[in-house]
Amino acid sequence: METKDIQMVTEEIPSSIVQFAVVDQVLNLCRVNSFWPVTFGIACCAIEMMATGCARFDMSRLGAEVFRPSPRQADLMIVAGTITKKAQPWIKTLYDQMPEPKWVMALGNCAISGGPFAFEGQYNIVLGADVFLPVDVYVPGCPPRPEGLLQGIIELEHKVSGWKRWKDPEKEAITG
Ligand code: SF4
User: Fold this and answer.
1) What does the pLDDT read at residue 8?
2) Residue 97 and residue 166: Cα distance in Å, rounded?
3) Which of 40, 142, 149 has the most ligand 1 atoms within 8 A of CB, as the residue to mutate?
4) Is 142 in the pocket of ligand 1 (CB under 6 A)?
5) What are the pLDDT digits (tens) for 13-25?
6) CATH classification of 36-175, choosing from 3.40.50.12280, 3.20.20.120, 3.20.20.70, 3.60.20.10?
7) Across the chain, what does the average pLDDT equal?
8) Measured between alpha carbons, how far is 44 from 143 in angstroms, rounded to an integer?
9) Ligand 1 centre and the CA of 44: distance in Å?
10) Does the CB atom of residue 82 touch ligand 1 within 6 A?
């Protein structure tokens, strides 16, 4: 299947048909404190993702440690690794099988822009997950450290709910 055959997801899908501002705020707060990532990895960055799930980094502090074996039970796709053109269709299928609302993290330089494989004449690598998925948060690095993934989850929490787990120390210093 050609890259151009896989449609970019652009439409905004509401989290529910009937919208209640306060209820949605509470629901979003619950969602961001219990992201359920789908279990899949593509390349070396997936090793860092696995390390993040181990006791040393304690992903459960953020409530995001429950990796689901089925996309139908997951609301977060962590694209961890190099996206080959051969893998692109099944990654898109996994994403499509996840129920709304759902979010995407591009973990590592390969998932952001093709990483070290983005050179002239390469023919087999997709230049970033955002070519065919609506990426919400980007975590750079080759590979990114587990702390980077945790920071990405914290940024996603803020993006989805407007809530910040910790105050921004730099902003605090400026405003006093
Ligand atoms: S960004 Fe680096 S570590 Fe991650 S998948 Fe690509 S080559 Fe591997």
Assistant:
1) 58
2) 33
3) 142
4) yes
5) 566 666 677 888 8
6) 3.40.50.12280
7) 88
8) 7
9) 5
10) yes
Residue nearest to atom 8 of ligand 1 (CA): 44
Which tens digits make up the pLDDT trace of 89-130?
999 999 999 999 999 999 999 999 999 999 999 999 999 999
Give, as one character, the DSSP assignment of residue 77. E
Cα–Cα distance for residue pair 150/22, rounded to 1 Å: 27
- In the numeric block, the tokens 């893998």 are attached to 87
Per-residue b or e along 145-173, where b marks 16 or more CB atoms closer than 10 Å to that residue's CB? ebebbbebbbbbbeebbeeeeeeeeeeee
In this structure, the number of other CB atoms found within 10 A of the CB of residue 119 comes to 8
- Specify the pLDDT at position 164: 84
Domains of the chain by residue range = 36-175
74 pocket-lining for ligand 1 (C-beta < 6 Å): no
Ligand 1 and 115: CB distance under 6 A: yes
Q: Which two tokens stand for residue 130?
A: 């955002």
Quick check: helix, strand or coil at residue 119?
Answer: coil
DSSP 3-state of 134: coil
